[in-house]
Amino acid sequence: MTAEKKVLALQDVRIAHGSRELVHGVSFDLEPGGVVGIVGESGSGKTLTCRSALGILPPGLRLSHGSIAIDGQDISGLTARQWTGLRGSTIGAVFQDPASYLNPSLTVGSQIAEALRVKAGLGRRAARQRALELLAEVHLRDPHRVYDRYPHELSGGMQQRVLIAAAISLRPKILIADEATTALDVTVQAEILDLLTDLRESTGLALVVVSHDLAVVAQLCEQVLVMRDGVVVEQGPTASVLHDPQHEYTRLLITEHEQYGLERYLDRPDLKETAGAGH
Ligand SMILES: Nc1ncnc2c1ncn2[C@@H]1O[C@H](COP(=O)(O)OP(=O)(O)OP(=O)(O)O)[C@@H](O)[C@H]1O
User: Fold this and answer.
1) Which residues pair with 8 in a beta bridge?
2) Taking CA 104 as the corner, what is the angle to CA 132 and CA 106, rounded to the nearest 5 degrees?
3) Among 32, 62, 112, 162, which is least packed, fewest CB within 10 Å?
4) Would residue 43 be called left, alpha or beta, if left means φ above 0 and alpha means ψ between -120 and 50 degrees?
């Protein structure tokens, strides 16, 4: 695969707070329509890694080493204005706790439409029409009704669908889902994961799926990185990592999650075949 074909490439990314390094070297590539998962316990560096790729590291933190390229463009030296152009149009993200990303005093449809007017320069009618299409695209039934709802009138799962609609509104090539289903109950979580898979298949969206839950990552991802204390302890095709974990911490994660149904994914025939082919 040539460099031009990669929509996201992280090469030995290190993130530091002053002289203290918090993330100790993360590398992965993502092709159009690809899915990579980052799994690990709280504080392992998953979110900082994502934030570095979104150009939103917290104040005082910096990319201290390595490189990040988004759609072939090295991010070092990007101005704030260039970042604003890139976010949304090329790379988007959704996070845990969707309600906190919505304005409580505006209807959800008007919030998507307003973003389209500002960022895509659409007129009022076109923005409304496009927002309705996006609500339908994230499988919200009766988009006209949902459009006029305020955030508190929607369930957590619906709010997250609205945020996914907003995140894909400018047709980005990459979507980062950072614990995007964590606060949702299991059924809704599965529906949102299905939606992400649908979007990936229908639009070629590439996904970075971040979760502390190995089952979430196993369901969606072709490649997985297992992180602990800012270190990638294991990385490879999901099938190999699940079936033949090399690191003790990965084995611990698998054992912990067996009770939550990870065996469903371990039993997936396609994963077995891929794992077998690798040996
Ligand atoms: N703004 C900050 N200033 C200093 N240290 C930080 C900051 N943000 C995160 N860290 C530290 O960096 C490390 C990695 O944090 P990060 O948020 O990336 O972990 P995570 O794996 O995403 O965990 P969680 O799932 O809890 O968000 C942690 O040790 C954390 O305390």
Assistant:
1) 30, 70
2) 45
3) 62
4) left
Q: Which residues pair with 28 in a beta bridge?
A: 10
CA separation for the pair 157, 141 (Å, rounded): 13
Check if 99 has its Cβ closer than 6 Å to any atom of ligand 1. no
Helix (H) or strand (E) holding 5: none
- Contact of 223 with 39, CB cutoff 8 Å: no
Residue carrying structure tokens 């706790």: 97
ipTM: 0.91
Token pair 């990965």 is found at 250
Residue scoring higher pLDDT (185 or 27) = 27
Choose which residue among 44, 64, 216 to substitute to test ligand 1 binding: the one with the highest number of ligand atoms within 8 A of its C-beta.
44
pLDDT tens, position by position, 203-214: 999 999 999 989
Looking at the chain, the whole-number percentage of residues with pLDDT higher than 90 is: 79
In this predicted structure, what is the pLDDT of residue 278?
A: 37
pLDDT in the model for residue 259: 58
Other residues' Cβ atoms within 10 Å of the Cβ of residue 229: 14
8 A C-beta contact, residue 143 and residue 161? no
Distance from the first to the final alpha carbon of the chain = 22
Nearest of 221, 215, 224, 217 to residue 200 by alpha carbon: 221
